């Protein structure tokens, strides 16, 4: 069968595109996903997040590295291989990014991607539990809830931030991002709300929409400089599926550049090394890889003061039963219920550091997650200077690509992360923490000098699982796609996922990816774009 559109990847963007492009009953749409069904208890229950991460069949099992500036270490990189993609396995944290992120895209030659042009699509995609206003949507497919943040350590986090001189912003996805905040999440009625739930499942019965799961795409079929179909493998058999409008890649910042290179689109030298025939030269495919690197800062506290006291065997049984019966209680939370966006230096126009607070500490022991009494920050660098790459290991589509983030290649990135650790310590030194603060577990009080903290950061640096930029959008000749996400080197092909971000945003990526998919779906079908918003935003004095 010929399709009008073929979408590769049923993740945060792909599910939205499938729903939007199939709104026209005259157009046949095919959505192809390498993973299987998202109908799973551990996917559905927010508190089961650690078990989702450990479920091998739900992810690609990728690792970055060896990382040249981390003594050759490798870093696990979670990517969803399931309907819903990473929106079915992520931490469900809803952060849009700072308005200046998008205005920065516009200043770099993409005027249609300013905050005023993006905000209407953020509003269109969401139903915010706090109600609609000029910044927030009230009737979109993605349901966004404000966390309850009722535990006493959440309150200590917010009060300590105020005592340190930082504001608590009432809506960090509204007028002002900077400051501390009560978190927001992709959770509806106590259950994970992925892009599959918001968009794909409601559209699933349309006769013009076909979803192929457990199906690997080997390559895009390119003839005479245009994408005309894809080669897929299902049940061990390969076959070609054709389309007469466009092939849209939404496979993510790792798999999209891999698929382009396997199809003959990329750096000719790289393709020649693997015996792949060149279809179109695009030397920046797989380059410019960005991510949010970070570390945990951990403290001990009394057993009764930590959330661990509610997660003993009895507490776990209560959590499970309460959630199964009512979809309420601790089973309905991702535990990341407060956070912050702060600056580590005054010469920055907007925050460069994100903090996610947990009222417990945890570590991995023999592959199992162990929680101990305490609390911790996950803090990551929002706009690092370091850049990495995605390249091919071989011409075999089943083999993982080679991923090197090149974290800490920039000295400034290391300095900013050290400053972030000191900033976290400042927050915890405030009077609000006096009755809760125990021993500093990581980095530990023996780590005081810059050299000590640099060693700690290098030894413990991890990933927020926010890869972006490997098929960068831009007006310059080196950019892989143009402002409408059209691949410059190949006709009838677009990319809609995090790989086209001109610069990674100051936030978790899911919300921005969904906004981009909403915005670009209008471009693909030729709809008039939503009118730019006149809502302003906070600028630091």
From TrEMBL:
Pfam family, one: GMC_oxred_N
Recorded GO CC terms: membrane
GO biological process: glycine betaine biosynthetic process from choline
Binding-site list for FAD: 82, 217
All copies of domain Glucose-methanol-choline oxidoreductase N-terminal, residue ranges: 80-103, 252-266
Keyword flag Membrane: no
Cofactor(s) in the UniProt record: FAD
Keyword Flavoprotein tagged: yes
InterPro entries: FAD/NAD-bd_sf, GMC_OxRdtase, GMC_OxRdtase_N, GMC_OxRtase_C
PROSITE patterns (alphabetical): GMC_OXRED_1, GMC_OXRED_2
UniProt keywords, alphabetically: FAD, Flavoprotein
Superkingdom field: Bacteria
GO molecular function annotation: choline dehydrogenase activity; flavin adenine dinucleotide binding
Family: Belongs to the GMC oxidoreductase family.
Listed name of the protein: Choline dehydrogenase
